[in-house]
Amino acid sequence: MPDSNSAKEILCFLKPRLPQMLATLRRFVTAESPSLEKAAADRCCGIIGKEWSKHGTCVERIAQKHRGDLLRITYASGKSRPSGQLLVLGHYDTVYSSGTLAKMPFRVRGGKAYGPGIFDMKTGIVQALFALQALQHLRRQLPKRLVFLWTSDEEIGSESSRRYFEAEARRSDAVLVLEPSFGPRGLLKTARKGVGEAELIVHGRASHAGLAPEEGINAIHELARQLTRIEKWNDPCRGVTINAGILEGGTRTNVIPERARAVLDLRALRVSDMRSLEVRLHGLRAIQTGARLEMTGGFDRPPLERRMSAALFARAQLLAKEMNLPLGECAAGGGSDGNFTAALGVPTLDGLGAVGDGAHSSREHVLINAIPVRAALLAALLATL
What percent of the chain shows pLDDT beyond 90? Predict the structure, then answer.
């Protein structure tokens, strides 16, 4: 069972350190780190790594050819051999290109701190750093090795980093993901939708729309019929959504279009629904005689099902209660790297990062008084799992 006195002691240690946390956060946020700009991302990686190296950790920088380098940071307390491993997972890359700071500077105002990537998710990295400092200062003996892995390409699909965090997850008893929480109450994300993209191309037959319309096969008409069919597969109650986000077709109004295309956003809360939707999409058949369908793609990020986070959330909720902190949960429509670790069968809890709002926008901010609180919650989890 969690030790309430220990959890409260951690919180009491961290609250007065908010100024130091903000100073560290400023250094991280003002080191811009766009996913697609390796040189800038590497500079940020170096700043984060230098800060972590000051605190008795082993910092390993994993070189990447086309993306920013990764940081693998390990820590083990005590003289005995660790009985397992906990993985703390997050990313330092942002969606903002270099130069964004000129129009969106780091600033603190009205109980909030603003800046590019501050909510998603550099504050989470700061919270993890100070959670570790609290455990060290209070001389907590941790039964498990801690591995902190900060990646550089989560915002663009995690293609480079996926094999690294999946390998660490397989060695871990649990994964704690420091993506931002949801809403002003800081809800943890105990479920996330699987996400994918599919492309439907319709091949018809071109003809003159006035002289010989009967000789043509209108690809746009066929596509419209198919999208009407697909729209009926949406099931909000089960968390299944299909959104036609891009439509293309035709060349001139007096030509029967021979080709039309739609790109679909796919989301589902359950693996079973994800697989079912993929089968239905790839099983589509043409309605118009002579038309031909070409379907490609599908889900590329599996769902994080609640069953993979339920026990971890119960532990977090109990710790929060003993610190007199309310803690709720939600299901999120977007995915994270936690989707991949949960799909491996490793218990995964997401949304342990910052409390704030405005991700990927000029309004991006965090609530500064929540920073030490969330760091204390993470530290208590690391000490008791």
Answer: 95
